[in-house]
């Protein structure tokens, strides 16, 4: 199943095909991992936050969320450039869900109580590629920061 997701990431096929629910969850989790790893410091607090966000978003227990994160870490390590990776999500996820995804990325980025420029740059890139405005991204960042 996850091999299928990787093959879609590496495929040059431009015709959108629906993602299985689990594949979509893994793709989103892999973006979270990519942002968390952007500053070359992938902290336990970031991994815990990814697990918590996945559990909340998908109605999973923490053990299942951690399992999805582990798979997402492997997918992220093998995934092609962020452009192709986000295209897979953009073509299949509503704009409201993409804005919520940016909020989730801010949660992961701020999980270690440090605003890392590399992580912020990664989020700006992902937001742009997903068609989320800078304004919506900033609103999500403020919402997340206010909830801490």
Automatic annotation (TrEMBL):
What's the name of the protein? TerB family tellurite resistance protein
Q: Which SUPFAM superfamilies match?
A: TerB-like
Classification via Pfam families: TerB
Q: Where is the Co-chaperone DjlA N-terminal domain?
A: 25-140
The species this protein belongs to is: Paracoccus fontiphilus
